[in-house]
Amino acid sequence: IFYPKKDGVLLVQEAKAECRGTWYLPAGRMEPGE
């Protein structure tokens, strides 16, 4: 997670192998077991 304190935007970096390293805005989805 990257969140600069001043005038920032919250971004999350994907950890799943198929799209690892991609930055995106957080979304409302849950995986089984979460």
Automatic annotation (TrEMBL):
<protein>
    <submittedName>
        <fullName>Nucleoside diphosphate-linked moiety X motif 18</fullName>
    </submittedName>
</protein>
<dbReference type="GO" id="GO:0044715">
    <property type="term" value="F:8-oxo-dGDP phosphatase activity"/>
</dbReference>
<dbReference type="Pfam" id="PF00293">
    <property type="entry name" value="NUDIX"/>
</dbReference>
<dbReference type="GO" id="GO:0044716">
    <property type="term" value="F:8-oxo-GDP phosphatase activity"/>
</dbReference>
<dbReference type="InterPro" id="IPR015797">
    <property type="entry name" value="NUDIX_hydrolase-like_dom_sf"/>
</dbReference>
<dbReference type="InterPro" id="IPR000086">
    <property type="entry name" value="NUDIX_hydrolase_dom"/>
</dbReference>
<feature type="domain" description="Nudix hydrolase">
    <location>
        <begin position="4"/>
        <end position="34"/>
    </location>
</feature>
